[in-house]
Amino acid sequence: MEKLIELDKKHFIHPTSSIQQQQENGAKIIVDKGEGIYITDVNGNVYIDAMSSLWNVNVGHGREELAEAAAEQMKKLAFSSTFSTFSHKPAIKLAEKIASIAPEGLNAVFFTSGGSESNDTAIKLVRHYWRIQDKPERRKIIALRRGYHGVAAASTSATGIPEFWNMAGNMMTDFHHANTPYENGTDKAIASLRQVIEAEGAETIAAFIAEPVQGAGGVLIPPVNYFKEVRKVCDEYGILLIADEVITGFGRTGTMFGVENWGVRPDLLSFAKGVSSGYVPLGGVIVSDEIYNILKEKSKGTLFHGYTYSGHPTAAAVALKNIEIIEREGLVDNARKMGDELLKGFGRIKEELDIIGDVRAIGLLGAIELVEDPKTNKRFSPDLQVSAKVIEALHNRGVICRAVTYEGTDIICFAPPLIMNLSQVDSLIERVYGAIKEIREELTIVLNK
Ligand code: PMP
């Protein structure tokens, strides 16, 4: 372990991590293997992977079938391009499968290697869509504050968390942000969206992009009518709607895609993570029949956008098997049922402990907000590092979770594998209760309560 930590410090620049913290403290958990909902570190400690790693290991760890699908495909064909006039069976079959489970009227897929590439692709596709219809001025993108869409050029700019823009100087031009419906409610959030549209000029806007549930912003579940109102506004102004389903796709929220909860049909839907349960990097964008028809009719010559690994055969073969598992094992239904149980458990914790604010879950995507005063939702002072302490107490109890501390919040996020059973949910709840209780007791003197 010590040797690994030294090598990690010396050679490995971690994504979305503090380099200084790494140099001072070293990697804390070096993960070795996984089985079902559990992961084991190199010291043999076992944890519930309550985030499905990065919201992605939907079918759980250790699936031999997926390893076999990868091996079979690798042995048969290492790689082949899908550029120009080339194609191959795994990509064709996966595109067909995704079309068959996608919301009605979305039937054509462009493949990428992950969520950031998917959103950059969606943004470039909508701009292309307007250009080939002689409306090149429609290029602006509106997104939500606290939205997360990735770290490539356009997806960073669409992301509504300023730290991601500031890291390299600034964001691209032509990106604008409206208020999130979470906390603001539908009416105010729609008014904010309208205000941005009117200020910028509807005829200059290509698309609005949003996550059906804002994940990295702190699992922010919108009011039920929000997306219906968004759809109306988009239609009124002729703006395309992009649903970023990178987290919510493939069963996470108890429906195959998150938009199904809200009864709306987006014009484009970006996905990644759950499509392959993280076993291989894969993502993509599904476009509506209307958009595909325009592309077929008006996109002349080469579409100058493509990744070497668009439709990688091994990734496609694994994703096909992964979707087969999700369907065969009824994991979408299970996510809904277990999500209800998880939420009930959160409710019980809230009743017991006086530092819990909002608790929420939709399918197996949930959060617990820690606050100093649940009556007023007064937040803790950031100096207290409350969520960091809870995360550590959870580690000590064998649970891996993630905290969101955006703008002084203390949000503990949950997105466990969709294979959770009732006793595993109960065990998770018990450990979460124990961890928060421990920190609550530590805070007694500071809070004087
Ligand atoms: N969109 C959303 C909603 C995400 O949660 C993420 C990743 N957490 C991304 C896009 C970016 O995906 P990736 O990290 O695979 O590039």
Automatic annotation (TrEMBL):
Claim: Cell inner membrane is one of the keywords in the record: no
Pfam families on file: Aminotran_3 (PF00202)
One example GO MF annotation: transaminase activity
InterPro entries: Aminotrans_3 (IPR005814), Aminotrans_3_PPA_site (IPR049704), PyrdxlP-dep_Trfase (IPR015424), PyrdxlP-dep_Trfase_major (IPR015421), PyrdxlP-dep_Trfase_small (IPR015422)
Keywords from the UniProt entry: Aminotransferase, Pyridoxal phosphate, Transferase
Similarity annotation: Belongs to the class-III pyridoxal-phosphate-dependent aminotransferase family.
Name by which UniProt lists this protein: Aspartate aminotransferase family protein
Organism, as annotated: Oceanobacillus bengalensis
